[in-house]
Amino acid sequence: MRNIISKYWMNSTTKSQTSIAKFEEFFATSYKDDVFEILETYPDERSLIVDYNDLEMFDPDLADLLIEKPQEIIEASQMAIKNIDPLVKDADLNIRFANVTNLIPLKTLLSKYIGKFVSADGIVRKTDEIRPRIETGVFECRGCMRLHEVEQSSSNRIIEPSLCSECGGRSFRLLQEESKYIDTQTARMQEPLENLSGGTEPKQMLMILEDDLVDELNPGDKVRITGTLRTFREERSGKFKNYIYVNHIEALEQEFEELQLSQEDEEKIIELAKDPDIHEKIIRSTAPSIRGYREVKEAIALQLFGGAAKRLEDETRLRGDIHILIVGDPGIGKSQMLKYVSKLAPRSIYTSGKGTTGAGLTAAAVRDELGGWSLEAGALVLGDQGNVCVDELDKMRSEDRSALHEALEQQTVSIAKAGIMATLNSRCSVLAAANPKFGRFDRYKVLAEQIDLPSPILSRFDLIFVVEDKPSREGDTKLAEHILKIHQSNTVDYAIEPELLRKYIAYARKNINPTLTNDAITVLKEFYVNTRNGNAEEQAPVPITARQLEAIIRLAEASAKIKLKDTVDREDAQRAVELQLACLKEVGVDPETGEFDVEVIEGRTPKSERDKMQRITEEVAMLEEEFAGTAPLNVLISNMIDKYDISEDKVENIVRNLKQKGILYEPSAGYLKRVS
pTM for the complete prediction? Predict the structure, then answer.
């Protein structure tokens, strides 16, 4: 047995010496300038990045050995640097390997890869505090005071000397200040959302970062991690758990690149874009199991492609993502539409308002295993550069909904919790659904009265659709036939297969960035100016604002992307205008005057309502003079009916609102007075 162990040790030593010699030659030939440059700046720079492809070209066997025995090979490469060091600095450089070809999806990174050198793509979910770890412990013998240095492993357990070489003692004291430390940080990443099939939970992986890799990751970052897959045993449960000891980090900022497109896929996509009916086909392929709602589906299709984000010279960022809110009666398929989009979009997250908190949407400060605070990314951060579908938005608590304000317009999430201050990206399109406050939508009431959503959130949606469930013999017959056919055959007719459409969207978002033509600018300008100035009255309500104009620009850009065009033409601008007009007619019309009013769209008090409030306030002032300081409510109601034909219910409702706003109060029952 001893002979076998001795033989194994000799073989291992020989292999190590051979690997060191090979690396000495590799660094002296292929990386001579890089090594010398790093050594000159050491210890400020402590990492040499080696391209795995260069190593494979130099010695394929050595490259294969790196995958199989990463710890031994990395140690050999570090020793080789010391051997060829012309400055004799005895530098402890980190050798980091980029572009490693052993790319494994997180969900298949299982026990057979333990001890192997692997690469994996994912989204950073959580980062913990940076802490020191003892790299070399200095121990003092309690008997003879002799000092002993012991190399420590990456685990938290301290390894003491087994025996004092001076006195044979076995009791030691750790000299913490004399020991050598290294910075370490734990983080967690999850597999890319575009790799998930609907309903599956994303696989997560623990990561250990050390030395100059700490503080390189933030929640929401899309990265490619290269390192050694290791395992450790949890003290509490006794179970083993895998983690990646990270060697190299590569940022993946590009959009949708993880969705691999073959040459054949690109040819199909380009051929499909030449189809004159491509626009209609994509609309028909959006939630095909739900019949009707063409305008809603068209808006969702445009949202999937998105507009063109712009960064101005003064660093101002104009978002290209389109936000849509669907308000509708129960049972019309809103949730099903959102679920379909979450599966179709190349990067998407679905969440429901009932089970969602503000921290779950943005980011949470959570306690880590050692009692410190760390940041964990929420849905809007994880969905960066994708789609976030929020169902039952009206069911969320108001303090949780407020988390949406910054994310919808600035497309960032700012966190100041538990001493952590950070700003994370949330460059995503939001598709939200809500139910009317009283169960069914009432066409004769303004939007703000029927949706339990504040105006700052409503104003940030580019398009708001109201979908009503109205009985109709012809429509109900077709709907029943459609549903029964699906149940009979278990199939849905697609104009474009979902997987191809998914790749089509990814290709368009990645490669197409259209610009406005003069013809398109003319159409958009005429619509904006004519709509705003359509009413000759000086005190007329404001129909739309610049916010709606920017929304139309984004829709026009998305229309051009559908056809993979580099320019936004007149037809794209007209399509965007028609969709915005259809939306305005649904939610932007004051039910009393029949005119467009931006206050109605954005959930505030419309001008007609403000005028009534003003008249009632003025009438109260006149009655105060007539009735010695207070205005009788019954006289006020009578006067408003006679003078302005305002009903009793309406007067009582407005008075109630004015009391809530602190403009009027009731000093005694049936009498009103203005607040001075």
Answer: 0.66
